[in-house]
Write a structure and sequence with these properties.
Elements lengths: L3 E4 L1 H5 L7 H13 L5 H4 L2 H13 L5 E4 L1 H8 L3 H13 L3 E6 L7 E5 L5 H9 L35 E2 L31 H8 L7 H16 L5 H13 L5 H13 L19 H4 L2 H28 L3 H8 L8
Parallel strand pairs: 1-3
Antiparallel strand pairs: 1-5, 2-4, 3-4
Helix pairs in contact: 2-4, 4-5, 4-6, 5-6, 8-10, 9-11, 10-11, 13-14
Length: about 325
């Protein structure tokens, strides 16, 4: 029975990041260069579309995960073409091809061996020690194999490290350079590389959890609604929710963000005075307006100072604080 390395999707997600088109372009060219004139023979135009999308998704952190049928839809090809492209990619020895451990329809996991994160990812997801690789193969069918020392230990019998790959009835993908070894794939929470992982760490949650998903959806939605919302501010709001033992972290954190990003909205406006026939002279002279303006300015100063105090905990640079506060910065004493 052929086997394949597997990891849970929650483990993979903490490594993934938004693709970077410029990095994809560079990596695609270096990938093609190693074939020295044989690239077109290995990757037809259809398979090249699949390869292009894989390299794009993995461009930021050197890893991505996607279902075979989704990859087919994105590339505009059929599932057979996806399987053939993945087979050619694996044979190029420039990427590790694994799968998510969620049963019979696991998604592909693609790991770029030439990315700086490659050793860290292999250790974190599969507990495999490897050295950074710069492959010297000139075409996709050379016999050179990756000399990767494998060192594994059994720590968690409940977590599968290697399973049979069955993705939409395709044949299992094998790794001739890896032995079949059971490994501890327990997520390593200390390796935090993106906002999802940082939120997990703040909430003291390892792996996928509905409460973390709710927080991430809230942050994404709020970023679309409020200009200037940074990850640092969002994390501060999450900390506030946890410190105050909120039952719903996402809802509490949203309130903190609203209060923090829109301080002037919370300043109560006095009701307009009713002008009677015998209007007092002080009202005609505008004395009441002066009093209102002074009070309003005082409230804005309080709000500005409160916002400054919070930002001071997040940013060490005074210029960064000034940029976040905008015009309110002038009200800080």
């Amino acid at each position: 029975m052929k086997t394949v390395l597997t990891a849970y999707n929650s483990q993979v997600q903490k490594w993934t990041a938004q693709p970077i088109k410029s990095k994809k372009t560079i990596r695609f060219e270096t990938f093609k260069a190693k074939f020295i004139g044989t690239f077109e023979a290995v990757f037809t135009k259809a398979k090249e579309k699949v390869l292009d999308h894989i390299i794009y998704l993995a461009s930021a952190n050197g890893i991505c995960t996607i279902l075979g049928k989704t990859l087919a839809e994105k590339a505009g090809v059929n599932i057979r073409t996806v399987r053939n492209a993945v087979k050619a990619l694996k044979e190029s020895e420039q990427f590790v091809v694994a799968q998510t451990a969620n049963g019979r329809a696991g998604a592909y996991i693609f790991i770029d061996k030439e990315h700086e994160n490659y050793p860290l990812i292999m250790k974190d997801l599969f507990d495999v020690d490897v050295t950074p690789v710069v492959i010297e193969t000139t075409h996709a069918h050379q016999d050179a194999l990756l000399d990767a020392p494998l060192r594994a230990h059994l720590q968690n019998a409940e977590t599968p490290a290697i399973t049979e790959l069955v993705d939409e009835k395709e044949q299992p993908i094998s790794f001739s350079s890896f032995n079949v070894i059971k490994k501890d794939l327990k997520p390593k929470q200390e390796l935090v590389h993106n906002l999802y992982g940082k939120v997990c760490k703040e909430m003291n949650i390892v792996g996928q959890d509905e409460s973390v998903t709710q927080v991430m959806r809230m942050i994404e939605k709020t970023k679309n609604e409020i200009d200037g919302l940074t990850d640092e501010i969002a994390l501060h709001a999450v900390r506030e929710a946890i410190t105050n033992k909120a039952n719903n972290v996402a809802a509490y954190a949203r309130k903190v963000i609203n209060n923090f990003m829109k301080p002037s909205a919370n300043v109560s406006q006095p009701s307009k005075p009713i002008i009677k026939v015998d209007t007092p002279q002080w009202f005609k002279d505008g004395v009441h307006k002066q009093k209102h303006d002074d009070s309003n300015t005082f409230n804005e100063q309080q709000q500005a100072q409160a916002k400054y105090n919070v930002l001071k905990k997040i940013f060490d640079d005074e210029d960064a604080i000034k940029e976040q506060m905008g015009d309110l910065y002038s009200l800080v004493s």
